[in-house]
Amino acid sequence: MSASSSSKLTRRALLAGTAASSALIALHPYSAFAATGQAHLRLLETTDLHVHVHPYDYYADKPVDTVGLARTAAIINDIRAEATNSLLLDNGDFLQGNPMGDYIAYERGMKAGDMHPVITAMNTVGYDAGTIGNHEFNYGLDFLMNSTAGADFPIVLANIATKSGAGPRDDTTLFKPYVILDRTVTDGAGNTHPIKVGVIGFTPPQVMNWDRKNLEGNVQARDIVATGEAWVPEMKEAGCDIIIALSHSGIGAAQPTEGMENASVPVAAIDGIDAVMTGHSHLVFPSPTYDGYAGVDVTKGTIHGKPAAMGGFWGSHLGVIDLLLEREGNVWRVVSSTSEARPISQRNEDRSITALVESDPAVIAATAKEHEETLAYVRRAVGKTSAPLHSYFALVADDPSVQIVSIAQTWYITEMMQGTEYEGLPILSAAAPFKAGGRGGAEYYTDVPAGDVAIKNVADLYLYPNTVRAVKVTGAEVKDWLERSAGMFNQVAAGKADQPLLNPDFPSYNFDVIDGVTYQIDLSQPSKFDPKGVLLNSEAQRIVSLAHNGAPVDPGQEFIIATNNYRAGGGGSFPGALGDTVVFEAPDTNRDVIVRYIVEQGTINPSADANWSFVPMPGTSVMFETGPKARDYADKVSSLTLEDAGDTAEGFAQFRILL
Predict the structure, then answer these.
(1) Which keywords does this Swiss-Prot/TrEMBL entry list (predicted)?
(2) What's the structural domain count of the chain?
(3) Integer Cα distance of 363 and 377 in angstroms
């Protein structure tokens, strides 16, 4: 097929082709060549669903082909039809992450006996087991337990305990640490045999910081690797033939460290674990993303020689691990394996998206009522904005979508500090852009036109149900907070043209802008911190001309910074926000505060005040990628000199910034 004809492939033709190719999967070598006493077992994984059941973007209020368990379910149905033996597992972060989740949590509620729509959808698909991700704790323990009570499948989690003992095996865990699934498998000769499949689950221990309000005093977290090393031997003693780790933890360093967040590589090294399902990072494994990681083989799809998979996020992929098992006496062992992540959509050469599957009608029907209720919920107007709210230039200039968050946080914390010992301290506000392209693609930006502001727009401005926090910091910590944030940018050589500006390893949600002070960023200087917040250059000085009310900030001066529970609890490792500077923990979410501010004001003016900018570098230019619709607003960015440089192959608009 030529490139030109490929780009014109229709959805109908592609779906037909996909169905035909699915039939060929039945010829998988494990199925074709499994002998007597050998069996092919297929492990299927979803991860980081974040309540994306329907193929619908509630923020944009339109159908999409790139998300939704209803779409992933179609692949699951095909595989079950073609594979004699399969297990379906979920790797966590299913209860929170889009307006349907917020609607259930904040509007409808979850009483004992109620059914959560994502659990209804998962029951409809038919899971064998699942684990708990970090975002399951966002709405509190009662909400979590009431929601998961409706699951028709066991949920396991080994490293969160309601009562800690001398060691992990002495803990009283919030959920069962593991489950043993008694199943039968059919071998190559058509004979059935019993098999015991152990499933154990883990979540990042950082939840104790990220959701301190909900968890402190109620549960304790243990190190993932130490917990696995304690429980897996017991699982083997209980007769498990194979053990699968549901590691809601990313693929990171090979060497274990106490309390590590992304621990899936050392988890795979635990003796007795046969396969690892990973997640949390919203990425895909196997994929070139992890090429070169110690202990990881992206070609074979293994970590420390164990098969592994990470099925993207929001239902974008299904992780698939194929195991060829061989029976020795009464014991099964893994002979060989393959791994893949199967997508629900593809991006074409013309940058359009084509669905590879249609939705499973049973999943759509089971949650149709909650879907309609969510649509009504997000469409309510709460006020008006006199200017557009967009994030197209949020990473390169003071921005209206970040500005309104900061204004609302400052308004709220100013009121909360009245009558406290901190009344009178200057109040600053830290906020970051959540939707700023990157892995989300060229359409992943906030874009609210002037006029009515609905709840869906507020959710678009602030994606996460974080709660407001206030921290007390010094002027020196304010500066280092901003130095940490300025790691977003590459170092730029003076006098050189068209240098890449943004560090692709730096997530936009860690690019905090602090409102209430003025400052400039000197791109000629190296970054003081690496993308994870580790000190790189102690003498680096990117932040210059830092001032409050027109006067230079004194390093010893005290400030209150309004932020969120994630940042204040150490999320992102920002100086002054490591969990020990919190002076106020709000009962309200940042979203609720934004809604309340808009309601009180009636009409808001989100125009950015340009409190930060780049230090001029004559004769120097940098390149910046953003959404194509940024062109509608480029002439309004007064702090930058911009030139349109066309589009990238991925569909982003490219701008040249003359420094």
Answers:
(1) Hydrolase, Metal-binding, Multifunctional enzyme, Nucleotide-binding, Signal
(2) 2
(3) 21
